[in-house]
Fold each of these.
Amino acid sequence: MLNMIRMELFRMFKTKSLYVIWTIFAVLMIVTTALTAGEMDAYSLEDRQQNYEYAMEEQESGQVNLGMDVTPPTKPGEQVSVFDMFFANIKGKAVAVFMIIFTILYSTADVTSGFVKNIAGQVKNRGLIVCAKAVCLFLYTVLTMMLFFIVQAVANKLFFHEVILGDKRAFALYFLLQTILHFALLMIVMCIALVIRNNVVSIVIGICLCMNALIIFYSFIDRMLAKVGLENFHMINYTVSGKITLLGTEITSEMAVTSLLVGFAFVAAAVCLGSFVFKKRDI
């Protein structure tokens, strides 16, 4: 198992798309911060108050809208913190989209190139190859989130002229939970890519998850369950993409525990299903 992990790590860090996607991602975060700074400079105090109320209403309502939106929850008169921009970009799924694209390219690269055939014959349990990929993608998730934090801090210094982290304890908890939830999302996408074996379709499905395109389906499930008496049940509260969007800046113990349970449950299910399919399929 350790040899497979080392092999997958070597392959991942030798993949050119890793550095290309990281570079594009970093540039986009800097551009997003520049645009946000330009907008906020043009806003009056009243406009900033409206933006703040809009951002807080979204958090409190627990509703998820279709599409992507980047609105930092900065109080009027206060400087935009790194936490504010980090939260806004995470909630807007800008980070998740780039991570999904790399995950699909990395997960299927050895299958499409035929390299995996040489390895599979030397491994008793081919499902362990999927587990090794999962370990590498966890490291990738952590590194990407750390890169995002560093780039965002630099961007704040460039365009807001100072680096204010915000509530450090809340930021650390939010960072941890979002790292786990994003890893769970990548496991789901990896499983989809291994089952479908079509990069284009897998990327489209992954982006649809980021764009909250399934909220129509979730609403249908909610209505069906309401008819049998489960009126307060909301499907999106128990999905990874839903948790990524709904997790606010003020995290209660219940929200933290629920996010962890949802994240770990989907990681386990996706890895098990991906391993089973990979083990049974003729490669």
Note: The chain has one domain: 2-280.
Amino acid sequence: MKYDDASWHYGGQFPKESPIEYGGTHIALFMKWCFAKGWAGEFHLAEQPEDVQRVNQGEMSATEFLFKHCDGKFGDEDLNEEGNHFASEYYTDHYLQDYSNFAAGMAYTRPEADHDFAKLTAMIDQKFAAFARQNGNSSKPFWKFW
């Protein structure tokens, strides 16, 4: 399942002076948050473990990772089961609006580095906490105890 694609954003009303990578900034920031939670997909952990680690350590931007390894696309293969459980509900239904409110005019016009990732993390953490409460304090199925 594809959650998002930068190419869906850099057409139409997209600012002409912005590089196409800005169409994926919101995707990359969510992916960065997921990677920090340990939710990188098996493919990335097997094929690009060093770059996943570099994103987590701030040595590589998540935007660079998104375009280098995912062709600007974000789908279920990019996350593990736990990450997909959350993303399938939150990203598809609420994240874009939350990001738009958070970014306040920065969407499509500013690079990832100009976003306050700590503030975005706090916002998504709150959304995840509510999601976890609603889903029995875990995004794992009840029969998985480990």
Note: The helical segments are 25-36, 42-47, 49-56, 62-69, 81-103, 117-134.
Amino acid sequence: MRFFNSKKAPIDDWSALSTFLTSEKLLQSKGEVSPARRAGVLFSDDKNNNFLLNFSNEIDSILYDGDGATRTLYEIKKEADGLVWVILEDGNFNDLVSSIYTIGNAISSNGGSENLIAAIFEIYLSIDIDDNSTRRGLRSYCIYRYDRKSFYPFIPTGDNEGERDKTAESVLGRDLSDSGLLIEKDFSQWMGLWGIPF
């Protein structure tokens, strides 16, 4: 039985991220997925990269200058271990995806491609697991790994490492794949990301 699509990985991040727009619309029409207003980019800081060091001073021009500028709101959150979250909020899902791409592209174009870790989209899931089990309004995440150029679902059930709903992740992964999203085929690469700040 086919579980994941066999499409080749796209050569650039926009080709991958833009497929989420089509996939989200299809699953939303089926009542399976409701997108939230928030998403984020996670990257590691680098003291040798001036752009990343001054990122908080750069982000306004990244998001708000130019013809394709959006009204996406943002918050930057730095963690003690050197990880940086750029948390975005926008009621227009197309603009939210566009802003995610814009942030990642700016980092990559300024010597930070190796620092990009993931783009994370918050969604709410309503699916039937089997005849006796359902998930309704379940807070979930669709994670895009920059190094793999692919997505995977992540559904934490608690704040501690290892607490996740793997059964629901499997069902969501199949549905996302069937809707055209490029899903990571290697389950060992479905890395848990606990402590997402949104």
Note: Helices lie at 13-17, 19-29, 50-53, 55-64, 93-112, 166-178.
Amino acid sequence: MDLLLALDMGTTHIKAATFTLDGAVRTEELIRNQTISLGSGSAIYDPHKLWESVKELLRRTTSQLGKDDRILSISVASMGEAGLFLGEDGEPVTPIMTWFDIRGKEMMEEWYATIPPEECFQITGLNYNYIYSAYKIVWFKKHEPEAFAKGKKWLCVPDYIYYRLTGEHATDYSIASRTMLFDVHKKQWSEELLDVAGIDADLLPTPHQSGTVIGEVTRQAAEETGLAPGIPVAAGGHDHICGAFAAGVIEPGKVLDSMGTSESLVAAFAMDPNVDMSSMRGFNVGCHVVPGCHYIHGGVDSGGISFEWYRERFEAGGDYTTLIEQAQRSPAGAQGMFFVPHLRGGSPPVRDPYSKAGFVGVRDFHTKADFIRSIHEGLACEVTQILRTMEGVLGVQFSEIHAIGGGTKNPLWMEIKSNVSGKPINIPEIREATLLGAALLGGVGAGVYGSYTEAVEAAHRIEKRYLPDAQLKEVYREIYRKYTAISPLLREISRIVGEF
């Protein structure tokens, strides 16, 4: 059987899976990605242990294959930003600094003293945030100059895996888009930002279009992993964008809602080379894994975590099915109660880290059911607000929403979101969207599919579809109107409350 193999380099777990050419899972393996905390918000991965984990996953995978099974390609989906330096001998001279390591904060402040955030955004599509690779590079340059001097190549996590498999120094456009060093218009390293960082382009890997072959499995890698030598390795992509690809969000007018602990919205669009990107501030913009396509990304940091927070604090860890059943007893509008889900700050287009969550309109007749329903409705309103802002920025109307992730298992949430947004929601028949997206990109690179569209069509099937309820249209229109009036007022209240 012909198979496509993919790796997913996640924050807490690393996964490997093989897929048939029509997108069915053949094998799936998982191993924990061990984070080493250094205290005070600093955290690393050991690159040697990371590669050992990948080798273990690949050995487990290949041991399950029959004599007639054949891996046609390999690709990698991954977290962004995190990276390390390799020395002259190709071995690590630093640990992998995680994407969430706060040491970048100091360097970010110095960075923006040199170049305005608005100018950075016009080049990179990235907003004010300490997580990007550039700040990690200059942190090593300032605080560990000996390691920096020994470093001959900076690689992000998937780039490091490509190097171990093929011996090539390569990255893809979507991962490069998360470094704060990449020009998303020209699709090359930005000379201006390299000057700000004080580094040469030679320090960075060669960027490639996702779905292009960057090398082959070397004999050494084959011996270590159980893979056959010579298997083509294709550039994959950033995990969110690989998921969007697998879900069919590959052209303007389509949007992905990835519903997990946080909720990520990714829309595809065609970038005008002369566009003024100032209208997109508050969102992140980057190169899609599909040629000629960019993405705009925003989300609700406290998506699924809002339910987890309520369950732990007020339901003694009760099961989610019971919570959903309770919420269904409350009518649309939760009897006038609203929840603004800013447990981790505000969402785009106003990314206000000081904005706080709140239940508004609480009266003595309200029940647990109303509280739980208001969480569902508040999240749906918050997402709808982001979607409508995206539509305005891009000048398109999203005809439907493609949703993936654990949140899609909550039918009430899906129904409410469809009603508030006024859009159909499609749930693809995908078990592992991120892995599948990477696998399909590998298939494109190996020539299994004639195009990116053909790859998606081969594996994309709709499992369930939610439609807006015409009878509730006016009810939810009024709920949304009130929500959008309440949310900015709560931001003002948050400033009065202050920090504790």
Note: The chain has a mean pLDDT of 94.
